[in-house]
Amino acid sequence: MTQSTDATGETADNTYDVVVIGAGPVGENVADRARAAGLSAAIVESELVGGECSYWACMPSKALLRPVVARADARRVPGLRHLVEGALDASAVLAHRDEYASHWKDDGQVGWLDSIGVDLFRGHGRLAGTRRVTVTAADGTVTELAARHAVAVCTGSRAVVPDLPGAADAKPWTSREATGADHVPGRLVVVGGGVVGVEMATVWQALGSRVTLLVRGGGLLPKMEPFAGELVADALREAGAEVRTDTSVKAVRRDGATVTVELDGGDLIEADEVLFATGRAPRTDDLGLDTVGLEPGAWLSVDDSCQVAGSDWLYAVGDVNHRALLTHQGKYQARIAGAAIAARARRVPILETDRWGAHSATADHDAVPQVVFTDPEAASAGLTLAAAEEAGHRVRAVDYDLASVAGSGLYADGYRGRARMVVDLDREVVLGVTFVGPGVGELIHSATVAIAGEVPVDRLWHAVPAYPTISEVWLRLLETYRG
């Protein structure tokens, strides 16, 4: 039994079946699954319960993007566009964002933890040996926790600012500042063409910033099909943003209210703020990993049940294992890990760790969905054509112009978009789907179901899409495939 001394000198038993470090959506789901299985659980959080997603990522960013995309859609509808020709009300948009970030207060999330019987310990959690965790509170008080069965590390990832001359002193934005800003900068330089870069460029350009997007590679959204980045880049340019590809930043300096970005070629760009959206690193550098023989600051390698390699009690769930840095995939992993922890606690002799088993996060490999909430939206599930070929599959890519689908024209005048389906020719199942166009985010779950269910193409032929909807693109893709 492990005990700790509180401020009054009294002792309390702090042994639980499961101890979770990190109370973001992933950690909350691990704790919830443990409690649902009848296990006791404690959760440790150094910031706000609800984590990055609730306050600095998914929720505030999508709250900022929704008015932008809604206005763009309205402008494409006859009889409506004249009503939305003016500028967005930036103060109202920021206030809407504040509501969705719960004004950066976590009372509701704390109440939910209490409702499911999970004990919350506020402070910095560190491993202190096998099945042991210390929690250092803001006042320096240290509490020791012990786990009978498992410790789950759910500490997520943090934005990385590249080590460039002047970058630290320039006070650059990361994703946190970009989603939490209380004013619209007159000029904004965004460095990075991934999801955060393109979404934040979309938001701030629409709210009134003059945005310059700098991309080191040849295009945007490099992990998706090439046409996704091309269509998003075209739309950003049409909205007034400057998009520069094959461009690297050499140095950054701040002089009062002005930031100067120096490019490798010598060009200088002046701005009010610069956002670096250039990558993520695991939050494991001050986690006590060395006490259990692991490297501090490293991504944690896990099996498909999210158990850390070489351990029978330590789990790493969500961003921290680097399998799929997406909130929904982290929550999926949490459900898998929670089931695995409960099964092992009950000493189930054989876990279902085979492909698509109850204790196997197979979808991390084969059926990851993602939506980029730009205008147009870009949505994908499963493998791109390049990834499928690299994995050794014999495949065929089927492309279709989304503007040729009846429902697209009804959705918006001048609709522009594209769809691709990647088919495994040996098994005749879908390996990947990508949609780019207004409103396509709501289509992607159908693709995810087809991929995860390994539905044969011949069976998909009998899944009739409603007419006239954009979903009719499924029929057109299948017709093109069948010839």
TrEMBL record:
Occurrences of domain FAD/NAD(P)-binding (ranges): 16-328
Domain Pyridine nucleotide-disulphide oxidoreductase dimerisation, residue spans: 368-474
Residues engaged in binding FAD: K62, G125, T155, G156, S157, D319
Cofactor: FAD
InterPro entries given in the database record: Class-I_Pyr_Nuc-Dis_Oxidored, FAD/NAD-bd_sf, FAD/NAD-binding_dom, FAD/NAD-linked_Rdtase_dimer_sf, Pyr_nuc-diS_OxRdtase, Pyr_nucl-diS_OxRdtase_dimer
Disulfide bonds: C53-C58
EC supergroup of this enzyme: oxidoreductase
EC number: 1.8.1.4
Annotated residues for binding of NAD(+): G192, G193, G194, V195, V196, G197, V198, E199, G279
GO biological process: 2-oxoglutarate metabolic process
Cofactor comment text: Binds 1 FAD per subunit.
Keywords in alphabetical order: FAD, Flavoprotein, NAD, Nucleotide-binding, Oxidoreductase
MF terms in GO: dihydrolipoyl dehydrogenase (NADH) activity; flavin adenine dinucleotide binding
SUPFAM superfamilies linked to this entry: FAD/NAD(P)-binding domain, FAD/NAD-linked reductases, dimerisation (C-terminal) domain
Sequence similarity: Belongs to the class-I pyridine nucleotide-disulfide oxidoreductase family.
Protein name, per record: Dihydrolipoamide dehydrogenase
UniProt organism field: Streptomyces spectabilis
